[in-house]
Backbone:
């Protein structure tokens, strides 16, 4: 029974998310919609299961939601900061920099989330990853102290992601 | 002052904030002279500008009494896909050498963009 359940729902969270997305796409809620959403979620999760070989061993949903709020707050504050840089700092005084962020995270999903977070926060863009996956290449728009930016990324985002995925 | 007027004012203010951020991003896009720094402008439009526009749409639809959730989906899809396009543009810049060359990675040998198989 457990094996059948596992075969039918290889990624329960994916099924749930797909069902919720389906209901949101309809923009109205009814029981039929919900059932159809769950059916779709099951079929799609089953059909794409070969491309998701190993689900992350640990995933703490509550901490992930808290992380989302931290990121949204950072997006707002750094938007204002970058807007100020755009309007006030002339091109000749702009100090863009490359920084290499050494990674302690090992899970591909966690590294993807970290890279996406860095790009979504204005002022920093993830550009590349080293061939063995031990560091990320990040471009910073304007900074006096590249090391401080690197430490902030490590303390603010990577530490939280380590807690979520461990 | 009834609820609809208040809602309209809130919608207008949010729209205005979003428009200002998009305007600043466009100024940045035209002002910066290096492809990598220019790349920072679209990330602003993608997050704050679009976020504010969609938030205005949500507020407006709730004021009119027809709740709409599509905007949250648009925002979620945008947030998932925007970093990928930014990443590709950055990789093109790295390949074309149109930017300052990046430093070497610390533990590994090479950045994966430059890790191309030998062509014979």
Residues:
């Amino acid at each position: 029974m457990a094996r059948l359940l596992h075969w039918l729902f290889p990624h329960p969270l994916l099924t749930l998310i797909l069902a919720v997305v389906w209901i949101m796409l309809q923009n109205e809620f009814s029981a039929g919609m919900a059932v159809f959403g769950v059916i779709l979620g099951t079929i799609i999760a089953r059909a794409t299961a070969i491309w998701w070989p190993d689900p992350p061993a640990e995933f703490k949903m509550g901490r992930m939601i808290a992380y989302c709020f931290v990121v949204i707050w950072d997006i707002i504050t750094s938007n204002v900061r970058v807007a100020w840089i755009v309007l006030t700092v002339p091109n000749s005084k702009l100090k863009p920099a490359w920084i290499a962020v050494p990674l302690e995270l090992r899970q591909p999903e966690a590294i993807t989330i970290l890279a996406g977070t860095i790009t979504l926060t204005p002022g920093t863009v993830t550009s590349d990853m080293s061939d063995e996956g031990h560091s990320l290449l990040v471009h910073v728009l304007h900074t006096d102290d590249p090391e401080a930016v690197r430490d902030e990324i490590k303390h603010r985002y990577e530490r939280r992601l380590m807690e979520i995925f461990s | 002052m009834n609820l609809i007027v208040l809602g309209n004012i809130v919608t207008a203010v949010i729209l205005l904030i979003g428009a200002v951020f998009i305007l600043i991003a466009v100024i940045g896009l035209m002002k910066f002279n290096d492809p990598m720094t220019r790349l920072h402008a679209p990330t602003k439009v993608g997050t704050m500008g679009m976020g504010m526009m969609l938030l205005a749409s949500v507020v407006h639809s709730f004021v009119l009494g027809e709740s709409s959730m599509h905007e949250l989906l648009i925002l979620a899809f945008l947030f998932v896909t925007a970093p990928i396009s930014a990443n590709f543009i950055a990789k093109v810049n790295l390949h074309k050498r149109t930017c300052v060359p990046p430093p070497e990675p610390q533990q590994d040998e090479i950045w994966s963009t430059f890790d191309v198989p030998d062509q014979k």
Q: What stands out?
A: The CA atoms of residues 46 and 101 of chain B lie 27 Å apart. Chain B has a mean pLDDT of 82. Helices of chain B lie at 3-31, 35-38, 40-63, 70-96. Chain B touches chain A through 49 residues (CB under 8 Å).
